[in-house]
Amino acid sequence: MGFRKFFNWYSLKLETNPLLTKSLTCGALNMVGDTLSQTLEKRVKPEKREKGFDFKRNLIFGAIGSFYIAPLLHVHYSKFLPYVVPDGTKYGALKKLAIDQSAFASFITTGFFIIINVVEGKGAQKGIDDLKQKYWTTMVINWKIWIPANYMNFVLIPNKYQVLFANFIQIFYNTALSFIHNSDDIGKKEDQPKQA
């Protein structure tokens, strides 16, 4: 199957079953991001070199993509943003970006840390503790990746393909997010620069 044929098939699936198509795509690409993260961890963390590939962790990351992130992205890009900021609105891309990177990014990040810890069997309190420790580190990386990416998304990409575009950018973001989630030392107070 050539790229054009695949693209036409995928476009048809977005028309006939958009949420399922976006959920399967997001789950698969979340797994790719976690795979890259596990590979990176083995290179930079000596204690992780001896461990094999963590399939359970990878499946959990994929499931969160399919059942949490994709439905939120579907509603956010396909329903909410077009309703709040109709196409053709003056400064529409900037307005969408402001909404996306303030309330939505904070909401999805908060939910991620709580949900992943619950699914991993660590409990909601561990999710809240991780959120307190890792929120700002995560949000800074989020803004570095998503502000330029989503500006391009809102300006150049047709609405129908915005979740797909976001999913591909998510490969890089999820590599960082998985790394942050699976690192106990990120965001600790003693790692913060001392103020004079």
UniProtKB/TrEMBL annotation:
The chain crosses the membrane at residues 58-77, 97-119. It is found in: Membrane. Signal peptide: none annotated. Its main location: membrane. GO terms for cellular component: cytoplasm; membrane. InterPro entries: Mpv17_PMP22 (IPR007248). It is a multi-pass membrane protein. It holds the Pfam family Mpv17_PMP22. Keywords: Membrane, Transmembrane, Transmembrane helix. The keyword Cytoplasm does not apply. Belongs to the peroxisomal membrane protein PXMP2/4 family. This is Mpv17-like protein. It comes from Strombidium rassoulzadegani.
